[in-house]
Amino acid sequence: MFMAKLLIASEFYNKLLNRKDIQILIDYDGATPKRDEVLKLIAEYLKVSEDRIAIVKMENLFGQHRLSVHCHVYDTAEDMKKYERKYVLKRQEVEVSGKTG
Questions:
Q1: Would you state the CATH architecture of domain 4-91?
Q2: What is the pTM for the complete model shown?
Q3: Would you say 68 and 58 are in contact if contact means Cβ atoms under 8 Å apart?
Q4: pLDDT tens-digit map of 30-49
Q5: For the chain, first and last CA: distance in Å?
Q6: If we measure between CA atoms, which residue out of 38, 25, 100 comes closest to residue 68?
Q7: Vertex 17, ends 16 and 18: CA angle to 5°?
Q8: CA-CA-CA-CA torsion for 87, 92, 97, 101, nearest 10 degrees?
Q9: 75 and 21 Cβ atoms separated by less than 8 Å
């Protein structure tokens, strides 16, 4: 595991989609962390299960050991499979049946 410090930049609850839209800044040491490591870190920090979190975007901030992460935290795993875009779920290797788009 890598050493990291998290800071929630913004948080908004979307009632229509049953999720929180969260923007997180992560300061890290060493190499850029992988998506699954970031997912575990966010789940531990927010005290939710990993199957309810969808990481939409991760980007390094230029010249810094800092990541900007946009993620969605759903109320249930079923809501995530229902509302999240297919390519985002595929990145996280979530099994989806019958979802198009």
A1: 2-Layer Sandwich (3.30)
A2: 0.86
A3: yes
A4: 888 999 999 999 999 999 99
A5: 34
A6: 25
A7: 95
A8: -10
A9: no
